[in-house]
Amino acid sequence: MTDPQFTNPAAQAVFEQYQARLQQERDLTSDLPRASFGDRRDEFLLPVGAEVGNFLRALAIGREARTILELGTSYGFSTLFLADAARQCGGRVISIDSEAHKQDHARAMLEQAGLAEYVEFRCGDAVALVEQSDEQFDVVLLDIWKNLYVACFEAVYPRLPEGGVLVSDNMIYPEGAREATRALRQAIAAKPDLQTSLLMMGSGVELTVKWSPDSDML
Ligand SMILES: C[S@@+](CC[C@H](N)C(=O)[O-])C[C@H]1O[C@@H](n2cnc3c(N)ncnc32)[C@H](O)[C@@H]1O
């Protein structure tokens, strides 16, 4: 029995499907050599997990986010939480992934959950799609392949409004991502108007807020 995470039974049923698939994937991958796992990574959910999902949802609702950007749809696990937030705060989610078949699966799951109307899926390279965009993003989840973190961050940064929030996943685990996450931390530290903090939840989350020194929010 999975702990209830959603008040809406349809969304809870979809969450439970994800949890069951995740357990199967854990069993399958526990003995897989690292190289084989890397070759097969597109098969797996690789989700942020329920704790981070709940955190993201609360953050987006608290921020009264109008536009939520997700970089890395995968099969839709984190999208489910973000879409539930969008439903509750009158916002919308733009979710980007380069793999169309993953987004097709995510779309079907969101439809089952009754949350598809809150999500616009965009398929393509995250850096290029963000750079082409003239939108501002109130809450951003950065969760694509880690070698793209700095490029994505640089594309997102000018599109974060004052008070806008960036959540970057996998800042602690897996260990193999640490060179990339260290580079992201350095890129964040180089901006004078960002406040940032590493949170020990899930695989390690960096919470970064655009908050200028002369902001009247301080
Ligand atoms: C860790 S998974 C995302 C997991 C998802 N956020 C969740 O919690 O369920 C990373 C995703 O980034 C996508 N990705 C990798 N490179 C990309 C790129 N250049 N542009 C867009 N998406 C990309 C992969 O296809 C993969 O689905």
TrEMBL record:
GO BP terms in the entry: methylation
Keywords assigned: Methyltransferase, S-adenosyl-L-methionine, Transferase
Pfam families: Methyltransf_3
CDD domains cross-referenced by the UniProt entry: AdoMet_MTases
Gene Ontology MF, one: O-methyltransferase activity
InterPro entries per record: SAM-dependent_MTases_sf, SAM_O-MeTrfase
Protein's name in the database: Methyltransferase domain-containing protein
Organism (species): Alteraurantiacibacter aestuarii
